[in-house]
Amino acid sequence: MTLFVIVFALILLLLVGLTADGGAKMTAGRRATAIAEEAARAGAGMVDLGRAYTRGEAAVDPAAAARAARTYLTRTGHAGTVTTVGSRRLRVSVTVREPTVLLSLIGISDFTVTGNAEAELVPGPPP
């Protein structure tokens, strides 16, 4: 009888750990995606001021957009990659490491999740 109770308690603890830490992993995934989206948005508004002033064209500067997205990631303290796809798209990938609570009892101390986002660099109409 006591062996049954011990085994049942361990199984119950494992299920609670999977539920709690699984929920934390899902939340971390949503947070990573939100950070990637905000970094992409930060870059999407970078206007090529040289073209805007000399030719009156509202064009996006892809290099400045990538820098702005990287700066956002640095300021939020997250690791990630920023790439420009052609001259009109900015792709951001963010990695978040989340510690576990109950699963650390069985040797799983943390997990890593990745969030991805893209922004299309679209200039507005000229003034």
Automatic annotation (TrEMBL):
UniProt-listed Pfam families: Tad (PF13400)
Domain Putative Flp pilus-assembly TadG-like N-terminal: 1-44
InterPro entries for the chain: Tad_N
Name this polypeptide is given: Putative Flp pilus-assembly TadG-like N-terminal domain-containing protein
Organism field: Spongiactinospora rosea
